[in-house]
Amino acid sequence: MPDIKLEDIVSLCKRRGFVYPGSEIYGGEAGLYDYGPYGVELLNNIKRTWWRSNVTQRENYVGLDSAMFKNPRVWDASGHTSGFADPLAECRNCHTRIRVDKELGAIDVFADEKMSEDELNAIFDEHRDKIKCPTCGKKDFTEARAFNLLVKSNLGDFTGRDERPVYLPGEACQGIYLNFKNVVDTTRMKIPFGIAQIGKAFRNEISPRNFLFRTREMEQADTQYFVPPHQNKEAYDAIKQARWDWYINELGIKPENLRWHQHENLVFYASDAWDIEYKFPSLGFDELEGVHDRTDYDLSQHAKFSGKDLSYQDPATGEKYIPWILETSVGMGRMFMAVISDAYTVETMENGDSRTVLKLKPELAPVQYAVFPLLKNKPELVAKAREVFDQLRQKFPCEWDDNGNIGKRYRRQDEIGTPHCVVIDFQTLEDATVTIRDRDTTQQTRVSITELL
Q1: Which of 77, 124, 260, 414 has the smallest number of CB atoms closer than 10 Å to its CB?
Q2: pLDDT tens-digit readout, 238-252
Q3: Where are the chain's structural domains?
Q4: What CATH number is given for 6-69+157-340 in this structure?
């Protein structure tokens, strides 16, 4: 199979209605994308799989859907108003801004966004002559400065003076911390237990790039597992293993395309942090999901800033403490991109032709069955095919296709990952059997309509 490039994935997503550039008729908007008819079905199937594994099938996890807008003090407590920043430098010629840590990384020079400005600029100064402006090609940049990523809004500000700035969420997980006591007080959850959420997050990325990998608007799937202080090691190892196994067993990701990466320079709130990295086309291995030991930072900060007691009292021992938190966090766009990239396959057929096929796990596929009448100008075939189609779509996501020859219809369904195509032909009218064709093997089997249903 030839090497898959990022442009192959982008082309397929646009051509087959998975992902469109945001506001395309107005020239687009960098870092914003719209999920098309097949994309939204695939994305929803991925979300359902994640929710089932992290909430429905777990006795000690519950779900949450918190509001996006929050009291501005939330972001002071979380550290986002002071520490949520990217290191940027500006081209003196055309004023294009670049992410200094990413540009250094592109030339294999280690730099971390968590470094101080002085540390980063020392490395930047040493390698300036190797970094070109992506717009004008010049190599003349300002020093790197921190650029806050929070997106401001004017909720309730009718004066335009920004007297009480509010923000769109920089991360989705804060709503879980804010509702920790509510969950404890209104459910029978006892520590250790977890809360899960899929929520929106917004980041004022100065240079979003690489398709869905880095965007300005995203959905994050988070779990926060609350444990007693210093009783984190065993649970943390179990969570890491469970997340690794989930990608392989539930999403069908190939193990060779995954690896672990441990953070050396930890953010201020974490005592340990690991990433599950995926080998993205053209990008190589990069972060897919983070697994973090956040200690008691989050609840302690919100207790301090809000003045509320967020401690937990053990009903058995009476002990009171601020729980430690073990987090998993993944962007749904990156997960979507990994699933499509892993399934994307180009094969050479026996007749020498090639076909592009998305070998998605069947339960993730946007369409489960495609139904074809052999000929669309034969009313009796069309009527029977419609009958089969109407029965199948009561239970499965199905698609009707009578346009073009059978081979072309197969190719279209291969490219959107449909596991099975059902053909109604003249023999169907005689014995009530149909041909069902398997996406991955292309083998065709004759089965009765009752067996199919």
Answers
A1: 260
A2: 999 999 999 999 999
A3: 6-69+157-340, 85-148, 367-452
A4: 3.30.930.10
